[in-house]
Amino acid sequence: MKAHWQGWAALALLAALGGWPEAGEQATKERVVDLGGGVKMGLVLIPAGTFTMGSTEADIKAVLAKWPDAKEEWFADEKPAHKVMLSKAFHMGKHEVTVGQFRRFVEAAGYKTDAEKGTGFKGAFVVADGKAKLAEDASWRNPYFKQTDDHPVVCVSWNDARAFVDWLNASDKAKPAGSTYRLPTEAQWEYACRAGTTSWYQWGDDPDKGKGWCNARDLTAKKTFSDRTVFNWDDGFVYTAPVGSFKANGFGLHDMHGNAWEWCQDWDGPYQGGDQTDPSGAASSEVRVLRGGSWYSGPGVLRSAIRFWYRPGDRVTDLGFRVVLAPGPR
Fold first, then answer.
1. Which helix (H) or strand (E) segment is 325 a member of?
2. How confident is the model over 278-310, as pLDDT tens digits?
């Protein structure tokens, strides 16, 4: 009860500062951030709330029954399901960060990505001719398929995503007092993805009813990736789609399922049992959490509860990010 009261008190204080809603207040319109050079970014206000994070034993059994070739250990880190309270409202990117937005950052900050610098290894991992490989000339500028400025940026590491966030914090002089741009915590991400749902996907538990909701490995992709399990519908894209091409969820967020995996702030680690308030992941690890699946992900992977990870310096052709603007320090 004390933690719950403190959460709402913090919201009231931030509301008084002009940046956040009081408890029970209706979510406001999206926040539009001017990145300069004619480039803008939209963020949606996500209200504080409580949800069940992860998967139950029954959920995992249902997944294994649906896809018999799957292995239980693939989903073990989704357990135990546990109640999480997010005590503070926050803004979240309406879309994944786009090529155009990332280009604006690179040009303004003079930044070179890990792929371009060759941090750890040269280039990035890509999918070419239906096969995964390390391409030394791959980067966000060259993910080995065509993109426009409206597509989600990919081939960016966690380090690159954090550099973008640092630039936002320094350049957005209009952000609310006491707030900070950052990558979402894993809990913020799943809460925002579910948007009040408890099903596998935002549209329910039936993968065949997902047409129009996301860009994933479907019948279009099957022509290229013939050996992979796919959704039984056609979204019209083999690789990334322009952000916002598909339906928004209940919070007004697009592409929380598919298009590009999204970096989270958290170090990867097992879930702890019991109710939690504003969890921030493991204290340390070698890898950071990814969420959401991508254009390369099939129906078993694209679920709201799925978890994956990469090292902070890794970059892959279906891996991007989105940002949050939240109360408190980074």
1. strand 324-327
2. 999 999 999 999 999 999 999 999 999 999 999
